[in-house]
């Protein structure tokens, strides 16, 4: 079984996130939602944690929920497959493997994104962050986990899975290696060559 993170590992979700933030900022009048560094912060951490740091305590949870509502309709269409993502999933399937997505994304929106880009997987574990990713990987019996953040690498290590970093997100290869990546790919296009079809 091979596990994959979703955002910036299998899909480029940046355009959809930016569109959703723009609509939410206009709708709410919250200037912090238009901060130029917000997208990078969201890709590095988690929507709820980032908004809790930047918005009043009485508004952050409500606006995080509203972001997820808006994202379902206007953010999902902004998602696209990263180069090599479909080939990576196919490479696992050719070896009779299972493909599981373990992501911090809100589960229904993760499923919507996968459907939008036409990627079929065997299971989706959403709203998993840090140790919760490791729990899902252990439950699925993952032997490999690919992701673009140090947290993904730490989760793979904690789950006794091979940690494979993909330097397509905001974290460069040295950060991924420092977090436990045994292999770092510059792009998902390199995955199929590393795991060729079995004889």
Order of helix and strand elements from N to C terminus: EEHHHHEHEHEHEHEHEH
Helix coverage percent of residues?
40-55%
Say how many strands there are. 8
- List the strand order in the largest sheet: 5-4-1-6-7-8
What is the number of helical segments per DSSP (H or I, 4+ residues)?
10
Short account of what is shown:
This protein is of the alpha/beta class and 199 residues long. It contains ten helices and eight strands.
Give an overview in words:
The protein is of the alpha/beta class and 199 residues long. The chain folds into 2 domains: 2-12 and 79-194, HAD superfamily/HAD-like (Rossmann fold, 3-Layer(aba) Sandwich); 14-78. Helix content is 48%, strand content 13%. The chain is built from 10 helices and 8 strands. It has a 6-stranded parallel beta sheet, with helices on both faces. Strands 2-3 form a two-stranded antiparallel ribbon. α6 (107-117) links the parallel β4 (99-102) and β5 (123-125). α1 (14-28) packs across α4. The longest helix has 16 residues, at 60-75. 41% of the residues are buried. The model has no long low-confidence stretch (mean pLDDT 95).
Ordered list of secondary-structure elements with their pairings:
Elements (H helix, E strand, L loop, with lengths): L1 E3 L6 E2 L1 H15 L9 H7 L2 H8 L5 H16 L4 E2 L3 H10 L4 E4 L4 H11 L5 E3 L5 H10 L3 E4 L2 H9 L3 E5 L6 H6 L4 E3 L5 H4 L5
Parallel strand pairs: 1-4, 1-6, 4-5, 6-7, 7-8
Antiparallel strand pairs: 2-3
Helix pairs in contact: 1-4, 3-4, 7-8
């Amino acid at each position: 079984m091979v596990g994959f993170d979703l955002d910036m590992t299998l899909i480029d979700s940046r355009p959809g996130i930016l569109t959703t933030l723009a609509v939410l900022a206009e709708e709410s009048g919250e200037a912090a939602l238009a901060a130029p560094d917000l997208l990078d912060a969201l890709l590095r951490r988690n929507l709820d944690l980032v908004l809790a740091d930047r918005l009043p305590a009485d508004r952050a949870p409500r606006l995080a929920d509203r972001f997820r509502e808006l994202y379902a309709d206007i953010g999902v269409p902004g998602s696209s497959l990263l180069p090599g993502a479909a080939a990576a999933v196919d490479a696992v399937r050719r070896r009779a493997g299972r493909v599981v997505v373990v992501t911090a994304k809100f589960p229904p929106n993760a499923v919507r994104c996968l459907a939008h880009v036409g990627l079929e997987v065997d299971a989706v574990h959403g709203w998993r962050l840090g140790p919760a990713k490791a729990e899902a990987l252990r439950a699925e019996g993952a032997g490999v986990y690919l992701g673009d953040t140090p947290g993904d690498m730490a989760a793979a290590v904690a789950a006794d899975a091979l940690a494979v970093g993909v330097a397509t997100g905001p974290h460069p290869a040295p950060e991924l290696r420092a977090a436990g990546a045994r292999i770092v790919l510059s792009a998902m296009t390199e995955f199929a060559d590393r795991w060729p079809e079995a004889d």
